[in-house]
Design brief:
Elements (H helix, E strand, L loop, with lengths): L1 E5 L3 H12 L3 E5 L8 H7 L3 E3 L2 H7 L2 E4 L11 H4 L3 E4 L5 H4 L9 H8 L4 E5 L5 H6 L12 E6 L2 H13 L3 E6 L20 H5 L6
Parallel strand pairs: 1-2, 1-4, 2-3, 4-5, 5-6, 7-8
Antiparallel strand pairs: 6-7
Length: about 210
């Protein structure tokens, strides 16, 4: 599968490594331009190439954004139409400034900015070092580290869930984008090391 990644920080670069290792083709981008990513893509190997943000969004059948929440307006709305966008970031007011979410969850707010995009919340509740080190394909799903996932499109959610499984984790469904507030910073499951079995016992009915 072709996957675009917008943001080449700890989460974006780690996902690029894991997904190329799983056999996917990656276009990775950042705000500084493709030339700043040459060392990274050399390390990632032939399944990865550097791109502009728009090129990464065009390339990906799935696009993962791992940028500071305050830069949400930089996401190329027209290019992303009809695509699956994985929202892996979090809103931290101290970093991002005060943003009026209008009562929406972080991912609902992103979705409101991106009409006709299938927004899925995932990869936002795990420390990047754990993401790099804790995936284990040898374990049954219920014993793997949980990756929480939320979304309003069932088919898109299933597609992203398969990616999570392919890199050695277990997807745990928290429900709709509205219910994704239980994945946000400060929530009980945020940044907790849980197996899928443990995590499923903590998710309220959505």
């Amino acid at each position: 599968m072709n996957i675009g990644i917008i943001g080449a920080g700890n989460i974006g670069a780690t996902l690029a490594e894991l997904l190329t290792r799983a056999g996917h083709a990656i276009a990775i981008s950042n705000s500084r331009g493709p030339e700043s990513l040459q060392e990274l893509v050399t390390q990632l190997g032939p399944n990865a190439h550097a791109a502009t943000v728009t090129e990464a969004a065009t390339f990906g059948e799935i696009v993962i954004e791992a940028i500071p929440f305050g830069r949400y307006a930089d996401l190329p709305a027209e290019t992303l139409k009809s695509k699956i966008l994985v929202n892996a970031g979090n809103y931290y007011p101290d970093r991002d400034g005060v943003i009026d979410l209008q009562g929406l969850t972080h991912s609902e707010f992103i979705a409101s900015h991106l009409p006709a995009v299938k927004v899925i919340k995932a990869f936002n509740t795990i420390y990047w070092v754990h993401l790099r080190e804790q995936g284990d394909l040898t374990k049954p799903l219920e014993e793997r580290r949980a990756i929480f996932i939320a979304g309003d499109d069932a088919e898109a959610k299933q597609t992203v869930s398969k990616l999570i499984e392919a890199i050695g984790f277990a997807p745990v469904d928290t429900g709709s984008l509205h219910n994704s507030r239980i994945q946000e910073p400060g929530a009980d499951i945020y940044n907790k090391t849980l197996t899928a079995r443990e995590a499923n016992s903590l998710i309220p009915n959505s």
